[in-house]
Amino acid sequence: MFDFKKIIEISLVLFSVIDILGSIPVIIDLRKKMGKIEAEKATTAAAFIMIMFLFVGESILSLFGVDVASFSVAGAIIIFLIGLEMILGRHIFRPDAETNSSSIIPLAFPLIAGTGTMTTILSLRAKYTNPDILVGILINLLLIYLVLKSSSWLGKKLGNSGAEILRKIFGTVLIAISIKLFGGGIKMLGIF
């Protein structure tokens, strides 16, 4: 059966890694650039990525000959570029007019269900059961959906200057997170 204490622990770990509240400036910025955020589409894509990675993540990576460390380094580079985009005001990730994939890239991946989240899910498997981890993922997906759905309201409350300040601050935070992930990945690879 479910262990609610463990579910709370898992939920808190995932909440801190996903950092959906810290991503609010990025979400507001994406909404400005793209015109809208499709909360259902982004949450569904993130759910698919996280749940799939829970059950077959290591197998998929090994199928391509990629280890978790290399995957972490690649994700760190993407997160670094998103942070640079926020700080410098340059557009690195451009929407595809035909598919309107902005709700999936870079929102669902790598911002919500990025390498940090996926690596954490793999790590949680060593200590917790899959059903407990699955419930923790679902709790976080509910919170993600609520934040994405209210991003327009949040943007109005913050205003242009508030959103711009948060964008610069969290751009710097994203770069710091990416450097930490990059360093951890490089260390796991045994390069340094």
Briefly summarize what is shown.
With 192 residues, this protein is mostly helical. The chain has helices at residues 4-18, 24-34, 39-63, 68-88, 104-112, 115-124, 130-149, 151-189.
The biggest beta sheet reads: none
* Beta-strand percentage range: under 5%
Order of helices and strands: HHHHHHHH
Tell me the total number of β-strands: 0
Residues in helix, %: over 70%
Uncertain residue ranges: none
- End-to-end separation in angstroms reads 43 Å
Shape, please? globular
How many structurally independent domains? Answer: 1
What's the gyration radius in Å? Answer: 16 Å
Q: Please tally the helical runs, counting DSSP H or I stretches of 4 or more residues.
A: 8
Mean pLDDT, all residues = 83
Structural class: mainly alpha
Q: How would you explain this protein's 3D organization?
A:
- By secondary structure, the chain is mostly helical.
- Helix content is 78%, strand content 0%.
- The chain has helices at 4-18, 24-34, 39-63, 68-88, 104-112, 115-124, 130-149, 151-189.
List the topology elements.
Elements lengths: L3 H15 L5 H11 L4 H25 L4 H21 L15 H9 L2 H10 L5 H20 L1 H39 L3
Helix pairs in contact: 1-6, 1-7, 2-8, 3-5, 3-6, 3-7, 4-8
Keywords:
192 residues, mainly alpha, 8 helices, 0% strand, globular
